Amino acid sequence: MKRFLYLIFSAIVLVSCQDKKEEAKAEDKEACTSETKTNDDGFEMYEMSEMAALMEQMYVDNERLKDRILKGDTIGKFPQHFTRIHEAVLTDETDKDEFFNTQAKKFIEAQELIYKDPENAKEHFNNGIDACIRCHEVKCGGPIPKIKKLYIN
CB count, 10 Å around CB of 109? Predict the structure, then answer.
């Protein structure tokens, strides 16, 4: 009976620790992508910044592009909305500095090369992902694990 109670207690502790880790990860991501606003009812609502929404869209577009590259399908045309990275409003506008602008430029150049030089699409694609990660290592590390999933091995 003591072993059974010990086993149940251990399981409860493990589950509660896992929940706290997941909450911390969610808070890290949220801090990079949203602002907290209180509505008329007093509830806190999270509003995604223009840049966070753009980055989410670029992620989805790059997932699709990765699939096309892996399947050997036609690449298509460069998505022009990617260039909004230079204009989109960040959660914290002080993050839009020379480092950010340099990394954004490298990202756009690598992305454009995918479409201009489809024979080397994999290399250009991974260079674009490298640019994302280098910027996020300095500016907002929350999405790095998700971004790394885009790499083409």
Answer: 13
Q: How much of the chain exceeds pLDDT 90, in percent? A: 62
The candidate with the shortest Cα–Cα distance to 140, out of 62, 38, 61, 49, is 49
CA distance 109 to 86: 13
Burial class (CB in 10 A: 0-12, 13-18, 19+), 1: exposed
Which tokens go with 73? 């399908």
pLDDT digits (tens, 9 = 90+) for 106-138: 999 999 999 999 999 999 999 999 999 999 999
Q: Which two tokens stand for residue 138?
A: 């300095």
H or E segment at 34?
A: strand 34-38
Rounded distance, CA 5 to CA 27, Å? 33
Confidence of residue 47 (pLDDT cuts 50, 70, 90): confident
- In three-state secondary structure terms, 153 is coil
The neighbouring-strand residues paired with 34 are: 48
pTM of the full structure:
0.71
* CA 76 – CA 82 distance, rounded (Å): 14
